[in-house]
Amino acid sequence: MDSLMEKFHQKLKKEKDKALFVELVHGVLRYKSLIDYYINFVAKKGVKDKRILNILRVATYELLFLEKIPEYATVNEACEITSKISPNLKAFVNAILRNIIRNKNQIRESLEKIKDVDYKSYISIKLSYPRFLIDYFEENYGFEKTLKILEFLNTKPPQSIKINTKKTDVKTLIQELEKNGFEYEINFYNQEVIYLLKGNIKETELYKKGYFYFQDLASSLVVKLNKEDFERAKKVLDLCAAPGGKTFNCAEVIDGFIVACDINEHKLDILRENILRLGFNNIIVAKNDAEIFNPDFTEKFDIVIADLPCTGFGAIRKKPDIKWNKSYQDIENLHELQVRILDNSAGYLKRGGLLFYSTCTLSRRENEETVTEFLEKHKDFSLVSQTTIFPDEFKCDGFFIAKLRKEGGR
């Protein structure tokens, strides 16, 4: 999804067009069930052609959420695109959209009636989440908490940057942001993380000079909350390092070096480019398959960071397509993968070393239960702490961090 969006994003020249493109794609994915409810209310037999359905989805999103775009402009644009794809359906698209405009209040009232009959179905449509995910979150965190999580994950995320303290400091970067006209907020939990509310900072000299890198608050807390451990470490292994946030966090504070691994060569190339841009000289990049035990790493490291593949439910704000492409089976498959990779990680630590296991998901099966299963198999490890970063509380991605110690040594 990200690579596909980037492909089309790069073709747009104007910043406002790029911003609208992201708004429309993410908006439709964020509210797909609600949009489809409006379309199906007036198209009683549904819309069989997927291309026409997606034209209607984009147009309906504009009608419901983008007040600055005149309704007539939305309808005209949708009809013009339809005439290029399937001219005989232009009148159909025109009729559907004009009916939605005329019947907005009636459709809204119809949806509210579902609330009294089947509240979960109402939430599934109104907030646009698959029913299985609502049920799964409720099993994990209770219904009241689930509602807060779902509502927050539907909000639009600001751009989040982490200051590169090897090149600058908070005060200096803020002065540069103000000089360049950026609106910003300093994060309460980590003042080296800044939220940008407007503007494209990637096109600035600040980016080219390596004064910052993109990272969510939640991801930065692995190192931030355990800074003393990383300061003492001489050798750190970041097992699934791309896109590199936690590797860069380490590079800012560690007195030794980091081995940053990934299996994807393209991701490693991007990692290398960022290391050069940021000016770090204590990172070694290596291609490695985390699922296969690497004997060269045996008991070499003081700290292993295992930020592992997961369902990504905590990152739905940034990747709303996650809502629609995950299932219960994915949760189970990923849990098993996580346990396998952690089994390998255990062998890479020196005695007394620390294993930091993290995910960007909200799922006891992938988080706490993965840790429990790992500890049952590895009696020489103990749990130091585990924390769930709830997105509605921290105003960031949902995240999980577990800190485990290998017995012996120091």
Automatic annotation (TrEMBL):
One of its GO terms (biological process) is methylation. Keywords: Cytoplasm, Methyltransferase, RNA-binding, rRNA processing, S-adenosyl-L-methionine, Transferase. It is found in: Cytoplasm. Gene3D superfamilies: NusB-like (1.10.940.10), Sun protein, domain 3 (3.30.70.1170), Vaccinia Virus protein VP39 (3.40.50.150). It comes from the Bacteria. S-adenosyl-L-methionine binds at C240, A241, A242, P243, G244, G245, K246, D262, D289, D307. The keyword Cell wall biogenesis/degradation does not apply. The keyword Lyase does not apply. Its main location: cytoplasm. Residues 149-410 form the SAM-dependent MTase RsmB/NOP-type domain. Its EC number is 2.1.1.176. One of its GO terms (molecular function) is methyltransferase activity. PANTHER family: NOP2 YEAST -RELATED NOL1/NOP2/FMU SUN DOMAIN-CONTAINING (PTHR22807), RIBOSOMAL RNA SMALL SUBUNIT METHYLTRANSFERASE B-RELATED (PTHR22807:SF53). Belongs to the class I-like SAM-binding methyltransferase superfamily. RsmB/NOP family. Specifically methylates the cytosine at position 967 (m5C967) of 16S rRNA. This is 16S rRNA (cytosine(967)-C(5))-methyltransferase. It comes from Caldicellulosiruptor diazotrophicus. The lineage of its organism: Bacteria, Bacillati, Bacillota, Bacillota incertae sedis, Caldicellulosiruptorales.
